[in-house]
Structures are given as C-alpha cells and as structure tokens.
Design goal:
The chain has 218 residues and is an alpha/beta fold. The chain contains six helices and eight strands; from the N terminus they run ααββααβαβαββββ. A hairpin with a 6-residue loop joins strand 5 and strand 6.
C-alpha cells in the first residue's frame, strides 16, 4: 500500500520531484508484487518442515506392522507439486496406534522416507512408530519408555523405521547424510528414528560432520 503522506505532498514539490517519487512508488509496487508471487509459488511447492537434500522419486511404499496395513503413496504430481488428497491418505495411515487420531504429516518427513527407500532399493519401509497422540506419548512415558515429553511424533514430524535386509547402522548413516533433521539409533533395536527437527543425533556419533547431540524431541 502507498503511504498517504507521499500522495499528499506531491503537489507541493517541483514537478521533477513528483515524477521521481511516482517512479519510486511504481518500482516499489512492482518489487513487492514480485516478492508476493515468489512467496506464493514457494508456499504451494515447499513442504512444512525441512526437506531432505536428496529427493526420492515421489512414490513411497509403507508397511505398518501394528495395523497390518501396506500402501503405496504417489505423493507428488507430474509437475512436482504435493497432492493434498494423497497427504490426507498418508495422515490416516500414520494415525495414532492407540486412539486412531489423525494428524497432518510433514511433507519433508515423507520426502526423507522416500529418499531412504530409493537409496537402498527397498520394496517398502516398515513404519514401526508413526504419529503419536499426546495420550499415547503420555502412556509411553508412564511406562518408562525413552520418549521425549515434546516428541516430534506428536507433530507428525517423526517416524521410526526398518528395512528388511538392511542394518539399522546403514539406515542411520545414510539418513544423517540427508541433513534433514534428527537421527536416533538404539543399538540392538532394529528401528531407526528420523525426524524433521534440528539436525542432531543420539545413540551414536556421526563421523564426518559436527552435530548437535541430544535426545530432545525424539
């Protein structure tokens, strides 16, 4: 919006000054319009959270043992945009195992899972832990499980995964190279935690890069 003070004072100044102000206003409006267009375009194409630096092919197959459900999701359209209808299906697939509560799932997390699946040439990823309702998180903490009070599972930004025939160490190491968020490793446990929070690691020490170490929001 053009400020009223600029318009009111144009008549009191020399003509050339008025033209200069007018040109500046036009240029400013064009610039703001361009920024608005870029912002709108990015909002349509960009995910909610951090996007993995290596993208998959836009198709990911997930198997959820606790629900005995398996589904393939083609979450990107031909022009590279996210398909809202497919993400609704993903949200239902990720629903809380205790309450069946549904929550939106971070597009960046799906990109990360897709990249991991494609990297290992896996037929599917086993989704051990998906969205976690506040009640489910509270119950797990009450049982002494290693669960963060403000777990990113409760925001639809975390998943615990396995791949048949691939060691957790290999999954862990590759997931960290994506630089998309946190990677948790639990030794003898078969699953690996990945999320779209800050870059960090726990349960292991990445060799090549510096990383924030901690278990917050796991």
């Amino acid at each position: 919006m053009v400020e009223a003070s600029h318009v009111l004072t144009l008549g009191a100044k020399p003509l050339f000054w008025g033209r200069m102000v007018h040109l500046r206003i036009i240029r400013r409006l064009v610039f703001l319009a361009g920024v608005g267009l870029l912002t709108a375009t990015a909002a349509q194409a960009a995910p909610m959270g951090s996007v993995a630096s290596e993208r998959g092919d836009g198709v990911v197959t997930l198997f959820r043992p606790v629900k005995q459900e398996r589904q393939t999701f083609r979450y990107r359209t031909e022009d590279g945009r996210y398909d809202p209808a497919v993400f609704e299906e993903i949200a239902h697939f990720f629903r809380c195992r205790l309450t069946d509560e549904v929550h939106p799932i971070d597009e960046g997390l799906i990109e990360m899972l897709d990249a991991i699946e494609d990297h290992f040439g896996a037929r599917e990823l086993k989704l051990v832990s998906a969205y976690r309702s506040p009640l489910r998180n509270h119950v797990m903490r009450g049982r002494g499980r290693r669960v963060a009070k403000k777990s990113l599972h409760m925001e639809g930004r975390a998943a615990d995964i396995e791949i048949d025939g691939v060691s957790p160490r290999r999954i862990r190491d590759f997931a960290y190279t994506l630089q998309g968020g946190g990677v948790g490793y639990y030794g003898s446990r078969r699953f690996v935690h990945v999320d779209t929070g800050p870059l960090r690691a726990w349960g292991w020490k990445p060799a090549a890069r510096r990383v924030t170490r901690g278990t917050a929001n796991k």
